[in-house]
Design a protein that fits this description.
- The protein has 362 residues and is an alpha/beta fold.
- It has one domain: Aldolase class I (TIM Barrel, Alpha-Beta Barrel), CATH 3.20.20.
- It is 35% helix and 14% strand.
- The strands form 3 sheets. An 8-stranded parallel β-barrel has the order 3-4-5-8-9-10-11-12, surrounded by 5 helices.
- It is globular, with a radius of gyration of 19 Å.
- The chain starts with a helix and ends with a helix.
Length: 362
């Protein structure tokens, strides 16, 4: 077997993954404008068969929390039917199906939210325009939206749910002093800034219990001065572990990942964040960032640096990446070219790997 660690089944609590590869939540911008699943969404998950864990792309928990009009929604019961079809496709491939639930907070604009006002922990947290500072009632409403989204994920047949707490979106904004300038119980100290995330996960656990393990993608450090530092992020991760978090998907917070990779390291800054968190926790850790070769994933696992490896751009470049790697056909993989700005998300037809796949197929 070419990659024995990559191919080995893995236990995530009661969930049994057939291998240790993860398809991370990659937003494809192909949902209908009302948030319902389209044929293009279904085809994406049908083609990306092979990973042991598939995490469905960030799905909006409320209309004003959308990143784009074409983002999948999980904020109304009518969304469940299409989501159930995605879960069915993932299960048919033999994988465990998770779904990421998401609120963009101030990291959006009124075009994306169809005219609805932006909300954030503080009015200073906007990216394209200034959002409104959330009131206590507003925070309570959004926490209820996360809880309701988890119930819909369970109704759709998913095996797990992942809260998006990274990349400068709402939960990440609450964690970061760059975005959270509140002076109440939701801001100030690290414990207060972590309250929103911990409360969201607590409510999800209370709502779906053992039916649907609630995990998290955590931005453990911001890339800008004055933001959340890695030491703080690790403290938050430990609190979450104590709260009962079953496993953790590690990424970065606001801005680009901080430069934490030692000179000459084969791993990205983002992967080094996961490696650091893995050393501090007992629960399984998913690492992501820059892995495009099966041998890279195998080495991470063989050395015990992380427990599971998520491959994003590699699987966008070649949807058969996992199947080829696990069957010993890694030489047939069409490699991601590591374009500075990934063309897949808006102009897939310009992706060099996609062009190469089409040439081979033709």
């Amino acid at each position: 077997m070419a990659f024995p660690h990559l191919s080995r089944p893995f236990h995530l609590g009661r969930l049994v993954l057939p291998n240790r590869l993860v398809l991370p939540p990659l937003v494809r911008w192909t949902a209908a404008e009302d948030g319902t699943v389209t044929q293009a969404n279904l085809e994406h998950y049908r083609r990306a068969a092979g990973p042991g864990l598939v995490i469905v792309e960030a799905s909006a928990v409320s209309p004003e929390g959308r990143l784009a009009r074409e983002q999948i929604g999980i904020f109304e019961d009518r969304h469940v039917e299409g989501l159930a079809r995605i879960a069915g496709i993932i299960h048919a491939s033999g994988a465990v199906a998770s779904i990421q639930i998401h609120h963009a907070g101030g990291n959006s604009n009124r075009v994306n939210t169809c005219g609805l006002p932006l909300v954030a922990p503080s009015a200073a947290a906007g990216k394209d325009e200034a959002p409104e500072e959330l009131s206590e009632e507003g925070i309570e409403r959004i926490l209820s939206c996360f809880e309701a989204a988890a119930r819909r994920a369970a109704a759709a047949g998913f095996d797990a749910v992942e809260v998006h707490g990274a990349h400068g979106y709402l939960a990440s904004q609450f964690l970061s002093p760059l975005a959270n300038r509140r002076a109440d119980r939701w801001g100030g100290s690290l414990e207060n800034r972590a309250r929103f995330l911990r409360e969201a996960l607590r409510r999800i656990r209370a709502a779906v219990g053992d039916r649907l393990p609630a995990s998290l993608r955590l931005g453990v450090a911001d890339g800008a001065a004055g933001g959340l530092c890695l030491e703080e992020g690790i403290r938050v991760a430990r609190w979450l572990e104590e709260d009962g978090l079953p496993f953790l998907h590690v990424s970065s917070g606001i801005g680009d990942p901080p430069a934490v990779a030692p000179a000459g390291s084969p791993w990205s800054d983002r992967m080094h964040l996961a490696i650091a968190v893995k050393k501090a926790l007992r629960i399984p850790v998913i690492g992501v960032g820059g892995v495009v070769e099966p041998a890279q994933a195998e080495e991470l696992l063989a050395r015990g640096l992380v427990d599971l490896v998520a491959v994003g751009r590699g699987m966008l470049a070649d949807p058969d990446w996992a199947a080829k790697a696990l069957s010993g056909r890694e030489a047939d993989i069409v490699r991601c070219r590591r374009c500075l700005k990934c063309r897949q998300f808006r102009h897939a037809e310009r992706c060099p790997a996609n062009i190469e796949l089409a040439r081979r197929a033709g």
